[in-house]
Amino acid sequence: MNFIQRLKVSVFNIEKYQDFTQEKFSVAIKYFLKLILLLSVIVAIFSAYKFGNLASFFMDTLKNDFPEFTFSNNILVAEETINKVKENRTEKISLIVDTNSESTEETVNKYITEISKYPNGAIFLKDKVVFSVEGLSGQVMYNYKDLDLTGTKELTKQKLVETLNNTNITAMYISVFIAVLFYMYIIYLITTILDVVFVGIIGYLTSKIVKINMKASQVYSLAVYSMTLSVLLNALYTPIRLLTGFNMEYFSVMYTLIPYVYIITAILMIRTDLVKQQIEIGKIKKVQEEVKNEIEERKREEKKEEQEKKKDKKEEKDKNENQGGEPEGSEA
């Protein structure tokens, strides 16, 4: 089976899971790596698309709503303090610029609480910046000195806008796609391997309970294929969440339970098939035994008939010999 056929069988044909146990475990590993790559590519594509929308929105916000500023020696100085919410047809952002207040923990937490009410948010303080992006959990905080954007050179709003206007957007999208693809592949690979391990443990215990002799490699092959539907649902749900902000409360629970249902069902179906095979084998043995007995009975009968024929021939021979041995004229 090719990759697409394996996808279909893994989702729609649990009764064929027994075929996977006849293959080498390396085949399941190759399928698993391709499955995670498919998920990562889909997520990376929509992440790049989401980045494009947000980048355009942030650019417009910078031009029209961000106050004039100067940035030098890793210190931001804005001409005014603003705290506003801007939105368009698809996006909404909470923008806070305050370079006058000290960046104390109390101030930062207060502003984070405000931007957390909206899908996207940005806080610009004199020595740090905080971002909150829809689809990502929590906020990301950077100190300007850690970013080291300009060194000792002075940066103004006009210079920043000119720089952004001259940036190759296509190259930026490609860079985001590659970065997200690599990052998500590693993350999904690690987390899904852990899921496969736990699913495999449940599958192995189930095989022991129903008294099926299965190798660990066979059980983990089933565990790999049982993850297929969960991974595909994740590949569908993540882009929807990125683009619309829709959040399914119990998705993680469903994602976790589906593989357990698949592998337990597969093992029970394998046991049912084995029982049917044993019944068929029993019937075949019974028929073979009956045929064997019939053949033996026929042989006994043939042997008996042969013995009787030999006996009759002997009696006839003896009779002929007795008749042939009488002297002439004995009757007279």
Provide a descriptive summary of the structure in words.
The chain is α+β, with helices and mostly antiparallel strands. It is built from ten helices and eight strands. The strands form two sheets. It has a five-stranded mixed β-sheet. A three-stranded antiparallel β-sheet has the order 2-1-8. A hairpin with a 4-residue loop joins strand 3 (82-87) and strand 4 (92-98). The longest helix has 74 residues, at 251-324. The protein is rod-shaped and about 150 Å long. It starts with a helix and ends in an 8-residue tail after the last helix.
Topology:
Elements: H1 3-12, H2 17-20, H3 25-64, E1 69-72, E2 75-78, E3 82-87, E4 92-98, H4 105-115, E5 120-125, E6 128-132, E7 140-143, H5 144-147, E8 155-156, H6 157-165, H7 169-209, H8 216-226, H9 228-244, H10 251-324
Parallel strand pairs: 4-5
Antiparallel strand pairs: 1-2, 1-8, 3-4, 5-6, 6-7
Could you give a short description of this structure?
The protein has 332 residues and is an alpha+beta fold. The chain has helices at 3-12, 17-20, 25-64, 105-115, 144-147, 157-165, 169-209, 216-226, 228-244, 251-324; strands at 69-72, 75-78, 82-87, 92-98, 120-125, 128-132, 140-143, 155-156.
